[in-house]
Every structure is written in structure tokens, then in C-alpha cells.
Amino acid sequence: MLQTTGDGGRVAAPWASAWQRKALIGAAGVLLCLCACTKSPGPSVTARPALAATGNFDFAGWDQYLGGVDSSQYSSLDQVNKSNVGRLAVAWTYATGENYSFNPLVIGSTMYVLAKNRSIVALDATTGKELWVHANEGPVGTRGMSHWRSADGNDERLLYLNAGFLTAIDAKTGAAIPSFGTDGRVDLRVGLDGDVTAIRALQTNNPGRVFEDLIIMSLPAGSAGYASSPADIHAYNVRTGALVWVFHTVPRPGEFGDDTWPEQGRGNYGGVHNWSESTVDAELGIIYVPTGTARYDFYGGNRVGDNLFADSLLALDARSGKRLWHFQMIHHDLWDYDLPTAPKLLTVKHDGIDVPAVAQPSKQGFVYVFNRITGAPLWPIEERAVPQSDAPGEQSSPTQPFPTAPPPFARQKFTEADINPHISAEDQAKIKEILRASRNEGLFTPPSMQGTIMLPGHNGGANWGSSAVDPKNGRLFVVSKELPTTANLRAPPPPGNGAAGAPPGAPQGAPARPAPQPPPNAGPDFVPYTVPVDFMIQPSTGLSAIGPPWSQITAYDLNEGTIMWQVPDGEVTSLAAKGIGGTGSHAPRGGVVATGGGLLFIGTSSDRKFRAYDSDSGSVLWSFDLDAATEGVPAVYSVNGKQYIAIAVGGSGLFSQGLGQAEAGPGKYMVFALGSANP
Questions:
Q1: Per-residue 3-state assignment (H helix, E strand, C coil) for 273-304
Q2: pLDDT(349) > 90
Q3: Does position 21 have pLDDT exceeding 50, yes or no?
Q4: How far apart are CA 96 and CA 164, in angstroms?
Q5: Taking the complete model, does pTM exceed 0.85, yes or no?
Q6: Which of 426, 496, 521, 663 has the largest CB neighbor count within 10 A?
Q7: How does pLDDT run across 577-591, given as a tens digit for each residue?
Q8: Which domains does the chain have, with CATH numbers?
């Protein structure tokens, strides 16, 4: 069986029974791809003009998270280019009081940021002068927010998540909008089944996407445990806050895909959350939503089957929430290999024809590329046999989809030859013992009682904000990291023996971890396994068990499905001091932006630098030393003919201990421009 691209057609079978899926689209891959393109693609999708309320599509502004609702992370501005980028200098800074990874929005001459104890702050985008502050109580989405403007321009709103409530404020004054929901707020739990007060507040860093008079929000899973709530997708009227449509990412009984979950307990399974980012094609009226893992992340004995729509790229009608097509990248995920990056829209020349494409980078190091109208893959995607689980009660999928092109951007196995040469001989010997004692059969080796090696790792590969496109030239740029982990399945103790033990690596006497709870109706024989995960960071050096490069930038030509170039992204301060370079930053979380000036702007954490790369070659053309890490996505904008590049700076970064860094400076936004008034 193959995956439908709509209500008919075939691509590669995510809902088929694991036993029905035959190996290998492989030998017939080209034929199947042709079938997917020529058979009925399902519901027709009519091109519609973009409206002003959906954001800009000339790529010259930065009025939405990642630049626009298209998530391109691309700016057409070219005042700063290869010839003059060396003259970039700090134009102004704004202190935040805390550390943020927020992607600023710029509307006209006003910049909007998160600062001052989770407040929304409006600044003059040319000077950093504070214009107004809207204070919030409780957590606020830390990566970005959404902007909406009425067709006549009289009503302009900022929308963001605060303490589990979708919140609307006036973009011109910062005042709450009482006509939106109740006193300017809408509880995301409303619309879920049952007693929603039993679900904790649904807070997420995903800012949602605006389309026409809707804001489309992806709910987070209620918890990381077995009994988490389903993470539905909700669309709200941006004027009133009224719930307009709902898409169930865990199909309810009778809905398409519900047969990929166990009969017992259907409707009670959780996860499948778009925790990161989504993308809107405003002309087609389609929202592309990459989803996450079904709960529990590393054991699925309670959820036998392929588990649609987990780990899938969903194409939904943005006006109604109707599924147009989907593709499941991982069947019955056991690795927490959710899709964390916004799908990227671009036009490519494929077999001599201009094709509207959507590219989806993944944690496991693949890029999946589809016709974004039909869902047909541009290159065959093969179902290949993968290692099988030996865990009690587990039924892993016998096959997984493998793209035949483009090539992976990350290593997908960890052998003794890959052990880090920059750690001590004693640490190298310990890592060798772990590799020999563990299941280590490459990508998709399941977690096990024996212990399993995973690479790129569930915190590796692509991540939020990590990909940008040059939509006019068919190029994709991915910033990736490789961070191997071990996954050791552990059963709970027998009844009466207390909790399941202290967290891995915790000091002696640390509080015990509560025993995991099974999901409702999981069955009387279900055993709720947990997986202590070890990132294999060596305490003596703070370095990974695997050797460099730990982070890379990969440039793809998606017209051909090939890699143009690949270079390490940054360095590690402690190694650079010894003359060891070219390692890539250690576990970075800095996003990338491409520009019309032929540049890529990327910040790193383990060497605290902000760099401009040549997008044609990967060579570094400019760098700036920061006094703290940067883990957000830059914003590129222009006011009165002058181009600016803004970035959030603060903190020490992920896994920064022992990397030779000085104490981090205070959190702030830093804005750069050419150092001369005459560019």
C-alpha cells in the first residue's frame, strides 16, 4: 500500500499496516513517482491571490516570525552584500533583562520584541528607543509572534501565546483588544474533548500562522508522558477569537487514519504536536504543518500501528482545515524524531518544468521534497527494511521511508572511527565500551533494554529556525548539528517498590522520578517503559563523544537534488585556543537567514560569533564577536532606505559547560547596519 496524496493517488504508505507495507518503493520508485504525479491527486487546489492581511510576499519586509507566513527566512534586500558586508557595525542595542531567542518583527519603522520580564515591547527600529511596553503574567512564547492587519489598515494586531491563552494586543498602542475572546484572550484548551480544566495550560513557543482573517494555532501536547493530550490544530477568527475549525492530529474513531492506532483506547492517545513551526502558502490557501511524535516518545507498546498523523507533513486547506494530502516520514516513531523545522516553499526546475515545491528537513538528516499542490515526491522515496525492536510488547515498523535524493545533510551512524579525538584516552575508551555494548545498527535502531546508540540524535539534525531558502533560485540552506545519544529502556519497578529511580546522572540522594502512568485504556498488560537518555557529553571537557564537525551548513540545489557545498558552522572556543578549527559550533541553536545580497547570516553559541557567509560558496565574509551566545533567528529589514540586521543575544547556550567561554554578558538585541551613511 502507498500513501495517498489526497483522497486518491499514491506516494508511500504511512497508514498501511506494517505487515502490508512491502519493501522498497525502490526498484519501482521512478514509476511510482510518476503515478503519484499523474493519477488523481485528490481535492483540487485553486490558486488564489495573496491578501494584504496574510503578510508580505515580496521578501522585502519582516512582519512575521521567520520573515513571513511562508517561513522562507529570506530577505530580498541587497544593500548589504558581498562587496560591503565587511563594513557592518553595531547600529544600536536594547537590553532585555533576560535571555531570549525571539525573532523580532518589524512593521513600518517599529520593531516588536520580547523583553523586560516577558513583556511585549515596541521599539523605534532605527534607534532602539522604547515606544511602549505591554506587560504579561506567566510564560510567553519565546521564539516569535504573529501580526495581522485589516485590509484598510485601520486595525493592526499582534497575536501571541501567554500562559496558555492566545492573546491579541493593538500593534499601534500595545493595549489589549477586549473584543477578542474574553478580555483579549482565548484559552487554547477550549475545543478539546472532555473536561479541559483537567488539562494543564497549553503553552508553546510556536507562534502560529495568520491567513486572511484566521490565526492557525497548533496545540502542544499536554505533557511528555503517556497520558498527554492530543495536540489538535485550531483556527481562530483573528477579530473575535471564535474557534473556526479543528483538525485532529490523532484521528478520532471514524476519521481518516484512525485504523493506524489500536482499536482499544482510540481517541485517548496524545502527542502528535506541531511544537515548532508551520508554513502558509497564501496564494494556494494551504497551511503546511510538520508534526511530532506520538506519546510516549521512545516506546510505543501502547500505540501499535503507524500512528497517523505523527511525524508527518500535513497539507491542510487553510480556510477549512480539510486534509489535502500528507506524507508520514516515520512510521511508529520510537526515536523522538519529530519534524521541528518549518516546511520551505520554493519553485524548482525539475525535469525541465517549473514545479511549486515544499521541502521538509528532518532531525534524522534527510530533506523530503514534494510538489506542494499534489504531494507527489520530486524524487522517489523508498520504503526500506530497518532494524527491529526486541523490547517486550513493542511492535516496530519493519520499514521506514528513505529519500533517494537529495543526499542527507548529517551523519547517520556512530562507529568507533568517529569517536572524538579531542577527549582524553580514558574517555575514548569508555565511549568505545558503550558502542560495543549497545545496539548500534545505524539509523532507526530502536531503543532497547540493552541500550541503543542514536545519531544524529533527537536533539540533532535540523531544528527550529534552522533552514532558509533562496526561493527564486531553488536553493535550500540547512544548519544542522550532530549530537549522539544513548537510549536505554527501563521498566517501572514492581508494585509497592516506589518510584522508577533517580534521573540519570543525578547526584546521590536526588529525588526519585515518579513512576510513569499509562494512558487511558492502554490495556491491562501494558508496561509503561521509560527511556533515560544520555547525550554522551564528556564531563571533563564538555565535548560530545563523537568527533567534529558538530554543526554544519549544507547548501542544496533543489533543482538538481544535489549538495552545492557543506562547511562547518562555527568553532569551539576551548579548541580554537589550541589552534583546532573547523569543528563547527557545539550544539548550536542559531537560525539562518538568506538575503538578496548573496549572504547567509548565522549566529553560534559555543564560540559566540555572528557571521555572514557567501551563499554561493560557504566562505565566511564577516564575523562579529559577541559577549554571549545567540540562539535565535536574525531579522532583516529596511527603514528609510537603510538595511538592518537584528539578532537576540544572551546566555551561554546549550551544553556550554567546559568549552572555554567567559561568563556570558547580559541579554540584549543587537542591530547591525553598514558603518557609513553612504552605502
A1: CCCCCCEEECCCCEEEEECCCECCCCCCCCCC
A2: yes
A3: no
A4: 23
A5: yes
A6: 521
A7: 999 999 999 888 889
A8: 26-498+522-674 (2.140.10.10)
